[in-house]
Amino acid sequence: AQTVTQSQPEMSVQEAETVTLSCTYDTSESDYYLFWYKQPPSRQMILVIRQEAYKQQNATENRFSVNFQKAAKSFSLKISDSQLGDAAMYFCAYRTNNYGQNFVFGPGTRLSVLP
Amino acid sequence: DAGVIQSPRHEVTEMGQEVTLRCKPISGHDYLFWYRQTMMRGLELLIYFNNNVPIDDSGMPEDRFSAKMPNASFSTLKIQPSEPRDSAVYFCASSSSGQGLGETQYFGPGTRLLVL
Question: How far apart are the C-alpha atoms of B46 and B71, rounded to whole Å?
Fold first, then answer.
């Protein structure tokens, strides 16, 4: 069974600085998708960024980018120019492309942004 | 599009009562998911549907939980009888197999359930 690990329960970053959140996963599949979701205090789950495993190029969405290392099964999220609104729980998620559409979520990392 | 809609947003009930949570997926999406989030267990998939048919309900905790999807635009998650340990935030999410975008799941705002 697939598993997703986020080894940093909590992180903090100074406003305008850069922070990297770690995610590793375990799978025997070769075709899959990876996601980062953000959950602010409102509890709404918001998609931040997604990556297809077959693509070597790292995904980028404005200030958010990933470092996808397929061989190492690592999928870290980099937030540049951190803003107060980035403070939230961040969940890494995995979805296989071979069957169904169920996701496996990591336990989350709580990010604090310090003014 | 209005996104995934859930109701109610908050529910407080007493132990033993029946609770019904409702979800309207994004129009055109053919997959619907029910999740439960607690501090202890994180985000857990309870059940998901494809074209209104339940595909995997292995995450449903016990017989007190049931889910239905009578049509493409509506699903319910029912707990009967409810217990204090069912207190959690319940999320509904939907996705489209024809999306071509990695079938991203889009989440509703959640229902915060408190069972006293």
Answer: 19
